[in-house]
Amino acid sequence: MVIYRDEYRLYNFGPSHPFSPVRLEMLTSLLQALGVWREPLVPQEATREDVLSVHSERLVKRVEAATRGERVPDLEHYGLGTGDTPLFPGMDRAARILVGGTLEGARRILAGEKWVLQLGGGLHHAQYDRSSGFCVYNDLSVAIRHLTRAGLRVAYLDIDVHHGDGVQWIHYEEKEVLTLSFHESGRYLFPGTGHVHEIGRGEGVGRKLNLPLEPFTEDESYLEVFQVLVPWALSTFRPDVLVVQAGADAHFLDPLADLLLTTRAYARIFPLILEYAEAYAGGRVLFTLGGGYSLDATVRIWALLYHVFHGLPLPERLPEGWLREWEARLGNPLTPTLHDPEVPYPEIPRRQEIEKRNRLTLERLTELVRPHLVH
Amino acid sequence: MLVQDVMRFPVVTVEPGVTLEEAYRLLLEKGIRHLPVMGEGRLVGIITDRDIRLATSHLNPKGPCPGCTRVAEVMTQEVVTAHPLDPVEEAARVMRERKIGCLPVLEDGVLVGIVTGIDLLDALLKLTGVTEPSGRLEVRLPDRVGELARLTGFLAGRGINIHSLLSYPENGDRVRAVVRVNTLETHLLAEGLRQEGFEVLWPPKKPW
Predict the structure, then answer these.
(1) Burial state string for A148-182 with b = 16 or more CB within 10 A and e = fewer than 16
(2) How confident is the model at residue B70, as a pLDDT?
(3) Among A55, A124, A125, A162, the one annotated catalytic
């Protein structure tokens, strides 16, 4: 089941901001041009109470006031009105619409749906008391909390190139939520957290996993550690449902980060996730979107996800008419095929060293959490 | 950052007349390695877990201390101390030079705290650590007047908030500045800085 509504595009920080609603417009028009678009389920917007299930009243109050155009003096302490998360008219409702989509996904899972793809959301940086990094409200945590309150054990898998810090901190002490984030190391990249030693606190200890990867990791090394860690963590934790933040910004074209994945990695990752959900999470999986700041790459990756999700064969070339229309609109050439070219970028000289470091990080992480996760 | 910002208090202490066995049990029980020794309310010495082990071990090249049973017989009497208002790097330098693991902190002769190597590690983490969601820029600057101001001025002009700034000398004529900024878009900033003639070490320039 796919969840989507056009109002997701109201979540718009302005024309020069990377978190662009154009991504969704391009994606839906591409799927239509390919003839695979099916009518999605249109979700309700989340209520204020839904948001308050994971956020503080004082944060919500400020978002509402700023949305009404009132002057709020301490906005910056709440991560709002910054360069990354500037104010825009109707922000509160726009954010609640995205939350509503992911929450609807959780409700559908509880109603017996096995696979849900929410074509929006994934605002994983928003914290209990602070908006952050393009994320006003945390739709993922609202959905996860809805699932845990219904008695489910939830595993959260985050493949966005940035650490899923908001989701991690909100559930940091919870036993019934496993978070697992693959990201470019916070030594260099925003938000700066997601080190292996962040493994949870109290009842949540050993249930928050982070694999900070070296910059310039590339497909092969990523897939190597992914295929070791995810099945191990999921088979050990045995969740009832898998929630996936499918950010597309680990791609080599992304202007914000340097993990250097290609579409070929994603073509392996998405089916693997579905396999793991079948094998270790009761067959239940809820996908959301997330980051992804190269329009060209992000749209192709999410189109790929849509095809894998529906078991459709992947198209080789993208429709001519669609390409012409969007190249004209964006004023730059687009990759004409779904996949990247065979040799997409120059060779990275430190490859072996990087692979070794990633293996070592995986070892460290496993050593740290094993005593807590296995019992 | 001052000693009073990183020191521990209240301090676990012993009296000179306590037996080595009791002192050692106290160290184990509290999970610590240093005990200031207090006689009549004043600091008269310091004893560590290592002192006690050496005094009672046959492995000590000088042999165990015959007949030593009490703290007073084994403790170090010339104690190196710090003041709460000393800068933390001052404390670090003293501990490094004297090769000692702790500094009792005295104010007007009264023991008000203790600083150990572990507290200095905490201070280091605090100085370099990530307290707010932020990205990281690394810039190499010529070591001369106004260069850092140029860098921070550029960031201010872009509306970027600086969460932390660390700088250290490099090869005598350069300074490396590590800046944590409240944005995901460090690549964009790096580009802007390069156009202004800055040498940006991180994030790197993409060749495509």
Answers:
(1) beeebbbbbbbbbbbbbbbbbbbbbebebbbbbbb
(2) 96
(3) A125
Q: Are strands B162-170 and B174-181 parallel, antiparallel or unpaired?
A: antiparallel
Numbered residues of chain B with Cβ closer than 8 Å to any chain A Cβ:
130, 133-136, 158-161, 180, 182-188, 202-204, 206-208
Average pLDDT, chain B: 94
Are the Cβ atoms of A132 and B161 closer than 8 angstroms? no
B185:A83 CB<8 A: yes
Q: Is the peptide bond before A191 cis (omega within 30 degrees of 0)?
A: yes
Neighboring chain B residues of A345 at a CB cutoff of 8 Å: 207-208
The two tokens of residue B131 are 């307290």
Preceding peptide of B203 cis, ω within 30°: yes
What is the spatial distance between Cα A105 and Cα B48, in angstroms, rounded to a whole number? 60
Q: How many angstroms separate the CA of residue B75 from the nearest CA in chain A?
A: 38
pLDDT band at A375 (very low <50, low <70, confident <90, very high): low
pLDDT at A321 over 70: yes
Residue A239: what are its φ and ψ, rounded to 5°? -75, 165
pLDDT band at B205 (very low <50, low <70, confident <90, very high): confident
Quick one: angle between helices A22-33 and A295-309, nearest 10?
A: 50
Burial of B31 by CB count in 10 Å (0-12 exposed, 13-18 middle, 19+ buried)? Answer: exposed
CA distance B159 to chain A (A): 7
Please check whether residue B20 is in contact with residue B71, taking contact to mean a CB–CB distance below 8 angstroms: yes
pLDDT of B147-162, one tens digit each? 999 999 999 999 999 9
| Whether A138 contacts A124, CB under 8 Å | yes
pTM: 0.91
Q: Which of B30, B22, B20 is nearest to B53 (CA)?
A: B20
The upper half-sphere exposure of residue B71, i.e. CA atoms within 13 Å in the direction of its Cβ, equals 27
Which residue intervals of chain A are DSSP H helices? 22-33, 48-52, 57-67, 91-110, 139-149, 165-170, 218-237, 263-280, 295-309, 320-330, 351-373
A34: helix, strand or coil:
coil
Interface test with A, best of B158, B162, B184, B201 (most A CBs within 10 A): B184
Give how far the C-alpha of residue A340 lies from the chain's centroid of Cα atoms, to the nearest Å. Answer: 21
Tracing tokens 């009549």 back to the chain, one arrives at: B40
Rounded CA gap, B189 and B173, in Å? Answer: 25
SS3 B181: strand
d(CA B3, CA A220): 48
Is residue A125 annotated as a catalytic residue, yes or no? yes
**In whole angstroms, how large is the CA radius of gyration of chain A?**
19
A188 with B202: Cβ contact below 8 A? yes
Least Cα separation, residue A211 to chain B (angstroms): 17
**Whether B130 and A191 lie within 8 Å, measured CB to CB:** yes
CB contact under 8 A, B184 and A186: no
Alpha carbons within 13 A on the beta-carbon side of A170? 30
List, for residues B43-87, the tens digit of each pLDDT value: 999 999 999 999 999 898 888 888 889 999 999 999 999 999 999
